[in-house]
Amino acid sequence: MFLSAFQMKYNTKSIKKLPKINNSEKWLIIDIRPKEEWIESHIINSINIPHHLFRLIYSKKVTKNKKILFVSSAGHSHLDLYRLLKKHNFKVYILLGGWKKVHQTDELDKILTYNPID
């Protein structure tokens, strides 16, 4: 299996693992996209903590007894949050491809919710 430099530096999970993670009590999926985007469509069972609010409220919503999976739009905007939680000994992972990849993967439709905003 080929691992990219990114995957060698950070703990990651592939899109293929998402349904199993979503159904597990051992995981917390945190979507860091803006609230408006999360309301429009998100992974069922995920919680939304927008990137700009994360440092203010994560301690109230995140516990060390669960593995954390970050979902961002597509880029690497979550890396500072990843490092923050790693520094505090959380088990944290990044979803490869982010929301963009989730949204493009038809097999995941059954674990997504859609609320189109007019």
TrEMBL record:
> Which InterPro entries does the record match to this protein?
GlpE_sulfurtransferase, Rhodanese-like_dom, Rhodanese-like_dom_sf
The cross-references to Gene3D superfamilies, in alphabetical order and at most eight, read: Rhodanese-like domain
Provide the Rhodanese domain boundaries.
23-107
Superkingdom to which the source organism belongs? Bacteria
Q: Which Pfam families match?
A: Rhodanese
Per its record, how is this protein called by name? Rhodanese domain-containing protein
Q: Which species is this UniProt entry from?
A: Spiroplasma melliferum KC3
